[in-house]
């Protein structure tokens, strides 16, 4: 049967935008190469025309140059069409890429929406409010515990605050009545009085003095101690 009806050939997949763009770019490169060759040929003819004298030879060179110039114009037109086709393909490719990005974005948003809905089922506003209330109660209990632990054991509970305030006022009044606002028990001690000055006693000598002639050492010592001299009787022989 296959020999009679033949085998159905598989259809080739249609070319993609990138394949078409690559094909056109190759054609454009070929046209550019041809234009370069024509430019070189025109430059050679131009030099020959300058060197050749007017006449049949120069006219023949000009005819060849005109033919090359026509070919150049034709290839330039083909190159412009290829450039336009490439530009159109680039626009289509850009639009296609934009649509693909939009599809991926929509898929990601749908997946995220589904996950958020599942998460919202497990999280309730009422549960959050209850949790906040419990946390506030726990903080209040913690503060009460800290205050209880921070109490002083040496301070009795039956202290009268009015009595303490009265003592404080009396202390302030006492401080105000003292000199310079300092209580007497906080003022420095006064210097002790000089008893020698009050009794008008002579001051002790500080240096040694020369005893007058006729005075003994004992009398001189008595004078140095500040004692009054006692007259002594002389014994006559």
Automatic annotation (TrEMBL):
UniProt KW keywords:
Coiled coil
Biased composition range(s): Polar residues = 203-220
GO biological processes: late endosome to vacuole transport via multivesicular body sorting pathway; vesicle budding from membrane
User: Which PANTHER family does the UniProt entry name for this protein?
Assistant: CHARGED MULTIVESICULAR BODY PROTEIN, CHARGED MULTIVESICULAR BODY PROTEIN 5
Q: A Pfam family this protein belongs to? A: Snf7
Instruction: State the coiled-coil residue ranges.
Output: 99-148
Tell me its family.
Belongs to the SNF7 family.
Q: Where is this region: Disordered?
A: 1-32, 172-237
- GO CC term (a single one): multivesicular body
Q: Which organism is it from?
A: Herrania umbratica
This protein is called what?
Answer: Charged multivesicular body protein 5-like isoform X1
Regions of compositional bias (Basic and acidic residues) in chain numbering: 20-32
